[in-house]
Specification:
Length: 426
């Protein structure tokens, strides 16, 4: 009986959170750009003014994670530093400089019968996000939701509990300071998994749910949610080096794509190299020197440069999102083989080609069906901030509503406005 009462209490509390979010969303939908931008700048200022408290809370989470044997890649995503705090504040400031998507006219015309028709962007309403060990997401989603006129409910997971609690308090106080509703940013972290489960079942109270994390978390949300889900996918990312690629460019791009921050989803995980490419020895030497652990097929093993070691790759390697300093490497006979490999193993996130052949570049763009296709640049650019979106909620690998980095516009839907002068349908 007691357990049942507790469950009912949690359900009532979460329902109260969604009710407050709905009221806040109505106020946010009516806020003009100047007001929302003022809120963003207040949030950025408050983050930096209170960064010592945030970093102290984060240190607790990192220490617990380390004691619990959390992987290096997860610890990297969990960790905040003064540099990363500055990056979060800068992203909020940048959002304030971007156009307001709300009210943007997608299309419009005057029909032959005189009706004036417009389709405009409007806020989603109540957006929920479930993620793990990513305290930066707390700030990014709050900022994007504010600018796009939404309210947001967060479930950031136990791994970042202290950090997210500190961030949430700062963000809510900043909103109140400028006269915006603090309830535009709320959390169900205090209710643990039950809170997350209730949010997933809150169809009608929550308009859209965005999971961000590893494969297990994303699939759990997709399979169990009654709320519409925008699926952000894992990143089994490929780079294909064709026979015309230049050595210096190839080395610099591979080092950046693999080692700049290996724990994130736009890091390259598999390198495909044409059999006639001359750059492979230099690329492998540079990667090995940078501490990358190579998992290679037999043909690459046979041409490893002196001093470079590797383990034999298996199908598991082609399927793995390492999110660490590991890289699978395969030699291919043709672009056809490279494309076939990508189609077999890709998660639809990001693929890149390094080439000096325009026709190869154009064919790769045309035949690769991923959210982002890159020519002669690092895969690390598949990022909302890098692509001028200010920040991102996540990178969608599905094809409905949003695909690729999700910024402000992706947190809006549309409505039709039809204005007439007494017309009736015949």
């Amino acid at each position: 009986m007691t357990e049942q009462i507790v469950e009912q209490d949690v359900a009532a509390e979460v329902r109260a959170i969604t009710d407050r979010a709905r009221r806040a969303a109505r106020r946010m939908a009516g806020a003009n750009r100047a007001w929302k931008d003022k809120g963003l700048r207040a949030m950025a200022k408050s983050l930096l003014e209170n960064q010592d408290a945030v970093l102290a809370a984060n240190a607790k989470d990192v220490a617990v994670g380390r004691d619990n044997g959390t992987s290096a890649s997860m610890l990297d995503r969990l960790t905040l530093t003064k540099v990363r705090m500055q990056g979060l504040a800068s992203a909020l400031e940048n959002l304030a400089t971007l156009p307001d998507p709300v009210g943007n006219v997608v299309r419009g015309q005057t029909l032959p019968n005189g009706l004036r028709m417009r389709q405009i962007n409007v806020p989603m309403g109540v957006v929920a996000a479930i993620y793990e060990a990513r305290p930066n997401v707390t700030v990014d989603i709050a900022g994007l939701a504010l600018k796009s006129g939404n309210a947001v409910i967060l479930r950031g997971g136990t791994a970042a509990a202290h950090t997210n609690k500190a961030l949430l308090g700062i963000l809510r106080d900043a909103l109140e300071l400028v006269g915006l509703p603090a309830d535009a940013v709320q959390s169900v972290d205090q209710y643990g998994r039950e809170g997350a489960n209730l949010i997933m079942k809150a169809r009608g109270a929550v308009d859209v749910l965005i999971p961000r994390g590893g494969r297990e978390l994303i699939q759990s949300v997709v399979n169990n949610s009654a709320v519409p889900v925008i699926e952000t996918g894992e990143g089994n990312v490929h780079i294909f080096i064709d026979s015309s690629a230049k050595e210096e460019m190839s080395v610099e791009i591979l080092l950046n794509a693999k080692t700049q921050r290996p724990s994130v989803c736009n890091t390259v995980e598999t390198l495909l190299v044409h059999k006639d490419a001359k750059v492979l020895p230099a690329v492998l030497r540079a990667l090995a020197k940078a501490g990358v652990r190579l998992h290679v097929d037999e043909r690459v093993q046979a041409v490893l440069p002196a001093g470079v070691t590797a383990t034999a790759a298996t199908d598991e390697d082609w399927a793995t999102e390492y999110m660490d300093l590991d890289l699978a490497v395969k030699m291919v006979d043709s672009m056809d083989e490279a494309i076939k490999h990508i189609r077999t193993w890709s998660t639809g996130h990001t693929e890149a080609i390094l080439t000096n052949d325009l026709s190869n570049a154009e064919r790769f763009i045309a035949e690769i069906d991923s959210a982002a296709v890159i020519v002669n640049a690092s895969t690390r650019f598949t990022d909302g901030g890098e692509l001028g979106l200010g920040a991102e909620v996540g990178i969608s690998t599905q094809k409905l509503h949003a695909r690729g980095p999700m910024g402000l516009t992706e947190l809006t839907t549309t409505k039709w406005i039809v204005q007439g002068e007494g017309q009736v349908r015949s």
